[in-house]
Amino acid sequence: MTHYLRRLSGYLNVIVVDGSPSEIYEHHAGLWSAHLTHIPPDPSLTFMNGKVNGVTTGVRCAETDVIIVADDDIRMDGSAIERMVDALQDHDVVIAQSYFDPTPWHAQWDEARILLNRAFGVHFPAALGLRRSLFIEIGGYDGNVLFENLELIRSMRFAGGRITQPNDLFVRHLAPERGAFWSQRVRQAYDDFTLPARMTLWLSVGPTILIALRRKRFGWVLAGGIAVTLVAEVGRRRGGGSRVYPATAPLFAVPWLAERAVCSWGAVWYRMVKGGVPYRDGVIKRAATPPKELRLRIRMQRARLDQEP
Question: Does residue 305 register a pLDDT over 70?
Answer without folding.
Answer: yes
